[in-house]
Design a protein that fits this description.
There is one protein chain. By secondary structure, the chain is mainly alpha-helical. Helix content is 65%, strand content 5%. The chain has 28 helices and nine strands. It has a three-stranded mixed beta sheet with strand order 1-2-6. Strands 3-5-4 form a three-stranded antiparallel beta sheet. β8 and β9 (738-741) form a beta hairpin. α1 (10-25) packs across α2, α9 (203-231) packs parallel to α11 (261-272) and α21 (469-499) packs across α22. The longest helix has 33 residues, at 139-171.
Length: 743
């Protein structure tokens, strides 16, 4: 084939080309040789000399296609109306396939003459071209446009009616009179005729079929909903609606274009759910309160598609959890409240977490509702004490981590600590928990009463993961002090005593605790006359420590110290671990069997309260015998020389009856003071940065910075007043609701 332009006889060339076009469009056999010759004819007509015949070729092809489709329409109209879908589909299938081949045959005309004159996407988007029908169309697009105007438009009423009838019969399970694949093919033709367009490709489909289908479907759905509501209970209604949802989803997949799926779904939900929303919301309350899980799942399926419909349902679920939790917590009684507190909350959490996973498909909105409910339960101030939850949770951790927690494996301990962390995340007063926890941790470490150091460190790591390093900084330093103390004691016993040729009368172990890291307080240090038996060891260690650390001062915490005393005056030797003050009291009986309480107090220089706390335990253990029921200053104490215990090793502690309430009060007061200082520091930082700030904005910024507790507005106001008095800030002159920073 020569590519050189030449003079062409259009009529002769078109006669041959038209014959091939007729064969292509009717899917007749066209040989490869003929196809190549006609392909060359299209090229030669387009580049003909002296003038291109492309436009004439285009017009003749258009006339041919017009006549061909008109002939197909006449054939269809002469056939049975009952088979219009089947007959239309057969004509469309052959014509559509033929147009694809014809488009390829005219590819040179399309590429070199038509496509170059079409508008670009940018011109369509930003230019003023409301109708792209004025554009020249490629042969494939032209053929489909002719089909739309000459076939679909004349048959639209008949086709749409037949399609709607098929869908309606399918809904009523009567069976469509046409194969669903054929119906879908007809529907797809409404979209395919516009496939060459750059915009509004499904406009014909929407106007022709989707709009009447939505109207007909709405009427059907309303009729069904009204019928079911009249004849069935709400649970039965929900089951039928869910089944209808599923059937409609399958039906959409079977018949309709993908763009209609969401619209049909919304139509169904509007008629079946939203129109009956008030009734469904009323039923939801009883469904949740009775925990009818299948009905809860069905209600969720009906409401989930529209978030606003789900809000009341979700809030009802949240209120139900909060109500159950508060009710169960208010029934807590007994000495082991901390265990009951945690077990109740964890059981509620797990119960409803499982429910969310199984019923609500792990929906984040319901998970958020569970979180809000747990926050309400945990911070609901049982027994009217605002610090109760933090204290109970800390005591729970203490019980799990103490040696007295018997029968728990490492896995069980870790699991229970993980439960504690779940509750900890919901605590508003995390700083209060930290204070209680650090005090209890200090006692466990000092008295070597931890179940497992690995478990202790694991718990601190869990807290650090939740709240950050700053939250656990002091807890980490407590562990560091214990490790350093081990090394110091070892060095003292193995090196210092040997080098200085000092021989101690007792085994001696010391914990060196940094004052800033341990929640002990210097005000707890009591005046005390040290027994002679302890003096040598203490003085030797002080000399050793001063040689290691110049400038540091040791303060002995006698009330936290303990030792092991051997009772040799009995028929069987007993080794008893007790506190320092108790040891000092018993050592006074080394050379006598009776002493008066006032003499003991004067000798040891103990205050009466401290004496009572330690001596009562010795009397209760029957190591000492009291002459009166209640210890008084003139009470005579006698050494019980007939004391007997099956165990040769045992531990006794000081009475905690008054200590616990005092510690709790001190802890709460300490936290309150820390909070005030934190708020004041935050205010100064904020005002130094902002210089001028409205009262409401300042309060909001302070609250956002308090991550471990929720400050009350009165406390914030009080701190602001304090800083104004201290002249860190002042009220703005022109506005009493605004503050300015004083540099």
């Amino acid at each position: 084939m020569s590519l050189k332009p030449k003079e062409m006889n259009f009529n002769d060339t078109w006669r041959d080309l038209q014959s091939t076009v007729q064969g292509v469009i009717t899917l007749s056999n066209v040989s490869r040789c003929v196809w190549q010759d006609r392909f060359a004819d299209v090229y030669q007509l387009c580049v003909a000399y002296p003038e291109s015949l492309a436009d004439k070729l285009y017009m003749e092809t258009k006339i041919f296609l017009d006549n061909h489709v008109q002939g197909l329409l006449e054939d269809l109209l002469s056939m049975s109306h009952e088979n219009i879908i089947q007959n239309y589909y057969e004509c469309w299938r052959r014509y559509n396939e033929g147009i694809i081949y014809l488009h390829e045959l005219y590819s040179y005309l399309n590429n070199q003459h038509i496509r170059k004159n079409k508008l670009s996407e940018a011109e369509l988007i930003y230019g003023n071209h409301p109708n792209d029908d004025v554009e020249p169309m490629e042969i494939g697009e032209l053929g489909l446009d002719i089909w739309k105007k000459n076939m679909i438009e004349p048959l639209r009423t008949s086709l749409v009616s037949a399609i709607l009838e098929c869908i309606n019969l399918d809904r009523m399970n009567k069976g469509c009179f046409v194969n669903p694949e054929i119906v879908r093919g007809v529907i797809e033709s409404f979209v395919s005729v516009n496939k060459f367009k750059k915009r509004n490709t499904i406009e014909l489909y929407k106007k022709l079929l989707e709009e009447p289908l939505v109207a007909a479907s709405s009427e059907y759905f309303r009729t069904q909903a009204n019928n079911w509501f009249s004849n069935y209970t709400i649970p039965q209604y929900m089951e039928r609606v869910i089944k209808l949802f599923e059937e409609e989803s399958v039906r959409c997949q079977r018949f309709l274009h993908s763009s209609s799926h969401s619209i049909m779904k919304q139509c169904c939900e509007k008629c079946m759910v939203e129109d009956y929303l008030d009734v469904l919301n009323e039923e939801a309350i009883s469904i949740i309160s009775e925990e009818r899980q299948q009905d809860m799942a069905n209600m969720y399926i009906l409401l989930r598609s529209v978030p606003k419909n789900l809000i009341k349902y979700m809030n009802g679920f949240k209120d139900h959890i909060s109500s159950e939790g508060s009710l169960r917590l208010n029934e807590i009684k007994g000495d082991n409240m901390c265990m009951s507190f945690v077990e109740i909350i964890i059981s509620i959490y797990r119960k409803y977490k499982t429910m969310i996973d199984n019923i609500f498909q792990s929906d984040k909105t319901f998970t958020s509702a569970l979180d809000k409910a747990c926050i309400s339960i945990v911070n609901g101030t049982p027994n009217n004490k605002s610090y109760k939850s933090s204290e109970l949770l800390a005591k729970y951790c203490d019980q799990i981590l103490k040696k007295s927690s018997k029968g728990l494996s490492e896995c069980e301990i870790d699991e229970r600590l993980s439960d504690a962390i779940i509750i900890f995340k919901y605590l508003d007063d995390k700083d209060m928990f930290q204070k209680f926890y650090s005090r209890m941790l200090a006692k466990r470490l000092i008295h070597q009463n931890s179940q497992s150091m690995d478990a202790e460190e694991s718990m601190i790591d869990k807290l650090k993961t939740t709240c950050g390093y700053e939250f656990t900084n002091k807890l980490h330093r407590m562990f560091t002090d214990m490790k350093i103390s081990e090394d110091l004691t070892e060095k003292f016993n193995s090196q210092y005593l040997a080098e200085n040729k000092v021989s101690l009368s007792l085994n001696f172990h010391v914990h060196i605790l940094q004052a800033g890291s341990w929640p002990l307080g210097q005000n707890n240090v009591n005046s005390f006359t040290i027994p002679q038996e302890f003096t040598q060891s203490m003085q030797a260690f002080e000399k050793f420590y001063n040689s290691q650390y110049n400038g540091r001062r040791l303060t002995w915490m006698y009330h936290l110290s303990q030792g092991e005393l051997k009772l040799c005056y009995l028929s069987k030797v007993h080794l008893i671990t007790m506190q320092t003050f108790q040891m000092a009291i018993l050592l006074l009986f080394e050379n006598t069997t009776t002493l008066i309480c006032s003499d003991i107090v004067n000798t040891l220089q103990l205050n009466w309260e401290q004496f009572l706390k330690n001596c009562i335990t010795l009397v209760e253990c029957k190591i000492l015998i009291s002459s009166t029921k209640e210890l008084e200053k003139d009470t005579v104490l006698t050494l019980n020389e007939k004391y007997y215990n099956k165990r040769t090793r045992l531990r006794i502690t000081a009475s905690l009856q008054k200590e616990a309430p005092m510690e709790t009060t001190q802890t709460v007061a300490s936290v309150e003071e820390d909070r005030k200082l934190f708020i004041q520091a935050s205010i100064v930082r904020i005002m130094k940065s902002r210089k001028l700030l409205k009262h409401i904005a300042l309060v909001q910024e302070i609250i956002s910075q308090c991550t471990t507790f929720t400050p009350s507005v009165p406390m914030i106001k009080k701190c602001i007043e304090t800083l104004i008095e201290k002249q860190y800030m002042e009220r703005a002159r022109n506005s009493r609701d605004e503050y300015s920073y004083i540099a």
